[in-house]
Specification:
By secondary structure, the protein is of the alpha+beta class. The protein has helices at 26-36, 41-44, 46-51, 61-72, and strands at residues 16-18, 22-23, 83-91, 100-106, 110-112, 119-129, 135-146. It has four helices and seven strands, in the order ββααααβββββ. Residues 20-114 form the MaoC-like domain.
């Protein structure tokens, strides 16, 4: 099944989508640490992490946001590429090795762009959820999306 990318005009407030899943592994956390240069011990040193208040190795908060953004792009509900205007994002619970995550996203507020005719702004409230149904991170992504060409 091919995905039809949506223009701003195709979206409706309240539209929802659930992403595929992503399994967090020790190797992926370590790769993220290498990619970003953030080798804080609770993310990379199991002995240190096990003795911490988390009791185990945990993923970086921004790792979770990065995974949420990637999962969002794998939803069947996708927009024609536009411009990210920013995120408001909360880290609610730790993300642990072997967590299986997915994103629940919906279309929130929408408005035509005031500064760019031919574009619209959409706000996507989203939750990153683990295999226990717990929200581990949540927030909103603001996007500027192309509108359909007016004939």
């Amino acid at each position: 099944m091919s995905v039809v990318e949506k223009f701003w005009d195709d979206a409706r407030e309240g539209d929802e989508c659930i992403s595929p899943t992503y399994t967090v592994t020790r190797e992926r956390i370590l790769a993220y640490a290498d990619l970003t240069g953030d080798h804080t011990p609770v993310h990379v040193d199991e002995e240190y992490a096990n003795a911490s208040h988390f009791g185990c190795l945990v993923a970086h908060g921004l790792f979770g946001l990065s995974i949420a953004d990637g999962l969002k792009t794998q939803c069947q509900y996708r927009f024609v590429p536009g411009m990210s205007l920013g995120w408001t994002w909360d880290f609610v619970l730790p993300i642990k090795v072997n967590d299986v995550l997915h994103v629940r996203m919906r279309v929130g507020a929408m408005r035509p762009s005031k500064s760019r005719p031919g574009w619209g702004i959409v706000v996507l409230p989203s939750e990153l959820i683990n295999q226990h149904g717990e929200v581990v991170q949540r927030g909103e992504h603001r996007l500027m999306v192309p509108r359909r060409a007016q004939a």
